[in-house]
């Protein structure tokens, strides 16, 4: 089962998007609307994307189905204002 595209509203205009790309078996966690200008590999197949101010804006996980259980996403201990806004299969 493929992971749906999930949008989570954290506080105000901040949001986090999680997308699984079945064709490349990669999972991308988009932490910001800002564009990435630098990518750093922190371990084999795990890359962190940073914006022009060196702020983390995304996490890319290659071969995600081998590293993660993609059948479920659990959100816990997030701020009271957190809510799932949208999931798309």
Query: Total number of helical segments?
Result: 1
Instruction: Round the Cα radius of gyration to an integer and report it.
Output: 13 Å
Spatial sequence of strands, sheet with the most strands: 4-5-6-3-2-1-7
* Count of distinct strands: 7
Give, in order, the helices and strands.
Answer: EEEEEEHE
Notable characteristics:
mainly beta, 7 strands, 89 residues
Task: Please describe what this structure looks like.
It is a single chain. By secondary structure, this protein is mainly beta. It contains one helix and seven strands, in the order ββββββαβ. It has a seven-stranded antiparallel β-sheet with strand order 4-5-6-3-2-1-7. β4 (38-43) and β5 (46-50) form a beta hairpin. The model has no long low-confidence stretch (mean pLDDT 78).
What's this model, at a glance?
The chain is 4% helix and 46% strand.
SSE topology sketch:
Elements: E1 5-9, E2 15-21, E3 26-30, E4 38-43, E5 46-50, E6 56-62, H1 64-67, E7 83-88
Antiparallel strand pairs: 1-2, 1-7, 2-3, 3-6, 4-5, 5-6
């Amino acid at each position: 089962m493929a992971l749906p595209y999930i949008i989570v509203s954290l506080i105000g205009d901040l949001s986090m998007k999680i997308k699984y790309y079945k064709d490349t078996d990669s999972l991308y966690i988009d932490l910001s609307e800002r564009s990435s200008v630098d990518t750093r590999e922190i371990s084999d197949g795990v890359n962190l994307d940073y914006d022009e101010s060196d702020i983390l804006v995304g996490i890319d996980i290659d071969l995600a189905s081998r590293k993660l259980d993609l059948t479920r996403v659990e959100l816990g201990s997030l701020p009271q204002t957190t809510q799932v806004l949208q999931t798309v299969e």
